[in-house]
Amino acid sequence: MDKVYDVIILGAGPAGLAAGLYAGRSRLSTLIIEKGQDGGQIAITNEIENYPGQIVDEEESGPSLIARMTAQAEKFGAERVSDTITAVELEGPVKKITCTGGEYQGKTVILATGAHSRPIGCENEGQFVGKGISFCATCDANFFEDLEVYVVGGGDSAVEEAMYLTNYARKVTIIHRRDELRAAKSIQEKAFANDKIDFMWDSVVESVGGDEGVLATMNVRNVKTGEVTTIEADEDDGIFGLFGFIGFLPNTELFEGKVDMENSYIVTDDNMKTNVPGVFAAGDLRKKSLRQVVTAAADGAIAATQAYKYIEENE
Ligand code: NAP
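^ thats the input. predicted complex w/ NAP below
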């Protein structure tokens, strides 16, 4: 492929789409590569109530916000390709991005591949993902209609998604490793007022199991007393749900050894520049203090503006 794009954006979450919008508006030839659906974690988040201008009502959700971001980036000319990135060459004036379906070249690259859910970390977890264990309430809540559901975590995601799950499940129990929630007070208040939500404090899931190939039992250990409680699915149900919301891990494996990182997060300066000239990073994969849609979008805008400057200075 001979075409050299001004900017190639890896990932179409809020950071990548905001970068696409800004790059497009600067009349840079722009390509956004995304392997899955647009939006990353936001595409599977029901309520986004803290992105400026987004007021949660029946019409608004993560997916509707993302649909508008995608449309806006495309309106300003960003090209899109649906492909899986397998390798990147980031050094030199022309960077090469290899995908399953082809190869793309760019003068600059914006790394915006986001993050993924941290596994619960219990014994046998892998065997039951998709068979009782889930990391996405929006995707899977309806499978647990009138069943019992457990949610691991105590942050905003765990508590908000637990509330969402009460629309389907008979009962939702939040299992948290401490005796107080990390979630914002306003979110906590709603959860404490919801009589379908119970709590298991100071507790961690140690192991999961089930004879029929679906999740039907788990051991939960109290970290203060050491006591282990075995939870079994109701006989009539034969299964319960276990949702993990204990934070995220950055999707940066492909960039290992190619840009500076700390604990797998990409290190940038305030202008989203990595240590490699012409390579920028934006969003949740970056070392930063606040990972939100608004900060991801801001990162994307800055990265694209800096990519424009870089191209001007190097031509
Ligand atoms: P988070 O804030 O990092 O919370 C993770 C939770 O999981 C914490 O309660 C933590 O416990 C627990 N945890 C971490 N590792 C664990 C382990 N190995 N075993 C058991 N529990 C573990 O993650 P998040 O809730 O996904 O939120 C991520 C970011 O998105 C945050 O900045 C959050 O504010 C933001 N967010 C905002 C909204 C909103 O504003 N509407 C919604 C969702 C997310 P400890 O508390 O003991 O550390």
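Residues 108 and 278 are 5 Å apart (CA to CA).
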